[in-house]
Structures are given as structure tokens and as C-alpha cells.
Design a protein that fits this description.
The protein contains 9 helices and 7 strands. By secondary structure, it is α/β, with parallel strands linked by helices. The chain has a domain of 166 residues: Protein-Tyrosine Phosphatase, Chain A (Alpha-Beta Complex), CATH 3.90.190. It has a 5-stranded mixed sheet with strand order 3-4-7-5-6. Strands 1-2 form a two-stranded antiparallel sheet. Helix 7 crosses helix 8 and helix 7 packs parallel to helix 9. The longest helix has 19 residues. The chain is elongated, with a radius of gyration of 42 Å. Belongs to the protein-tyrosine phosphatase family. Non-receptor class dual specificity subfamily. It catalyses: O-phospho-L-threonyl-[protein] + H2O = L-threonyl-[protein] + phosphate; O-phospho-L-seryl-[protein] + H2O = L-seryl-[protein] + phosphate. One of its GO terms (biological process) is negative regulation of transcription by RNA polymerase II.
Length: 274
């Protein structure tokens, strides 16, 4: 007696759908699908491969999806548009950098960079302008050297009871002006700019007049008053005055004095343009 047994037919497996039931065009065809990894014998630990360690990452084929291409193209165009403003300009076949913006005034840090370049050495006294000497306290106390230089006026930017008095120069026939200034960025030296410049101008206007402008070291307080004189009476810009003095002596006014000189420079330039 024959007994017919039912033959179980395996149902075809349905492909996983993407989106709303439509298969993604980036899925590889069935013939190109990679073979499953070989099974390991019992007792062997599984080996980490790029397939198992990168399970959290999307498959490499997904990089070819149209949506990713669109995102990549937008990112590239954004980078290109941003870098276009910084790219050099091509003029007649040559690459040239875009011209830098020229500013009429330097800031304090640029002025300090200018002060540290060029001549930095100094003597006890240096003639930085015809008849105008910039020096230190030692040359101011050396009467023999003052006679040799023919000094007729002394402007002391560090005036005090111990650093100079008018009586100290009575026997030499030297006229004296003392300014009680402190070498501090917080000290307002600008209130003495005009009076000091007038005194220097009167000294140099006399026949054979020579003036010594000094402080303790001769690089900050006295140098600031000399720069103000060149700006007020000779209409030099601050940069021009610094370069003129530095051709003969190294100077380094403190930052507070530089800011006050910058304010004077702007005021004088605005007055000339008005």
C-alpha cells in the first residue's frame, strides 16, 4: 500500500524592502552578493573582521545612493564658495595675492615692533635733531660735557628734588625746565606736550641754541616729549618722528605714552584734513 506523503515546498523568502516597499537601486544583484563567512570549528573564538567590527557602520554600497551623492555635492560647493574669497587673483596669467588694506595709523603693538627694529644702542647723549640732544641723567650732571656740547637749555622729564633743580645750572648760564613725570603707563604725559614743545622751540630758535632733553635713562619720558615736539612743530607723523629719532638713538616709550602720542597724531591729522 502506497502512502503519499505531502511534499513541503519552501516559500520564497521576501526581499527586505526599503522605504515604502521599493527596493533600493544600490542593492547588489543576487549573483554578486558576497558568500557567507565559513563556519569555525567548535571551541575557536570568533575572529574580528571588517564585517563584524564595522557592523554599526552602514554598508559600503550605501555610499553610492543618490541621497549621499547630493549631500557630497552640496558640501563640496559650499567649501568651494567659501574658499573662493581667499583665493589669489589671477592677473595676466600670474597669481597675485589680493592687496592688503592700508591703515593710516599703526596700533600700539605695531609701534612697539617698529621701536625694536633698527638702532637700539644709545650714548649718554645723542643729537637726534639739529641742536636737540636726547640723553640721560648722567650727562645732565656732567657740567664739563654740557659746556663741550654747547648746551644752552635743559628740559628734565624726571624733575625732582634729587634729579635736578634750576640752581644747579645757574653758573653755566643754562635755562632749565623741569617736568615731574613718572615712567608709568597710567601717567598722563599729554598735559606736558605743548609746554615742553614750546620750550624746545624757543631754545632752538635762539642763535646757537642747543637743548638737552633728558630723564633717568633717556628712552621713555624724554623721548616722548621729543616725539611730541617733532609732531607739533614740524608736522611729522608719529611714525616719521620715531624713524627720525631712531636713526640716532634707540628709544622705547611705554605703552601708555604711545597711546597718548597716537591720540596726538590723530588730532593733528584731523586738523590738517579739516
Amino acid at each position: 500500500m502506497l502512502i503519499r506523503q505531502p511534499v513541503c515546498q519552501a516559500r520564497p523568502r521576501r526581499r527586505r524592502s526599503h522605504g515604502r516597499g521599493a527596493a533600493c537601486a544600490c542593492d547588489p544583484p543576487p549573483g554578486l552578493r558576497p558568500a557567507p563567512p565559513p563556519e569555525l570549528p567548535p571551541g575557536h573564538p570568533p575572529r574580528l573582521t571588517s564585517r563584524t567590527s564595522g557592523a554599526a557602520r552602514p554598508p559600503a554600497a550605501s555610499k553610492m545612493c543618490p541621497g549621499n551623492w547630493l549631500w557630497a555635492s552640496v558640501t563640496f560647493m559650499a567649501r568651494f564658495s567659501r574658499s573662493g574669497s581667499r583665493s589669489p587673483v589671477r592677473v595676466r596669467g600670474a597669481l597675485e595675492e589680493p592687496p592688503a588694506v592700508q591703515h593710516p595709523f599703526l596700533n600700539v603693538f605695531e609701534l612697539e615692533r617698529l621701536l625694536y627694529t633698527g638702532k637700539t644702542a644709545c650714548n649718554h647723549a645723542d643729537e637726534v635733531w639739529p641742536g636737540l640732544y636726547l640723553g640721560d641723567q648722567e650727562i645732565a650732571n656732567n657740567h664739563r660735557e654740557l659746556r663741550r656740547l654747547g648746551i644752552t637749555h635743559v628740559l628734565n622729564a624726571s624733575h625732582s628734588r634729587w634729579r635736578g633743580t634750576p640752581e644747579a645750572y645757574e653758573g653755566l648760564g643754562i635755562r632749565y625746565l623741569g617736568v615731574e613725570a613718572h615712567d608709568s603707563p597710567a601717567f598722563d604725559m599729554s598735559v606736558h606736550f605743548q609746554a615742553a614743545a614750546d620750550f624746545i622751540h624757543r631754545a632752538l630758535s635762539q642763535p646757537g641754541g642747543r637743548i638737552l632733553v633728558h630723564c633717568a635713562v633717556g628712552v621713555s619720558r624724554s623721548a616722548t616729549l621729543v616725539l611730541a615736539y617733532l609732531m607739533l612743530y614740524h608736522r611729522l607723523t608719529l611714525v616719521e618722528a620715531i624713524k627720525k629719532v631712531k636713526d640716532h638713538r634707540g628709544i622705547i616709550p611705554n605703552r601708555g605714552f604711545l597711546r597718548q602720542l597716537l591720540a596726538l597724531d590723530r588730532r593733528l591729522r584731523q586738523g590738517l584734513e579739516a
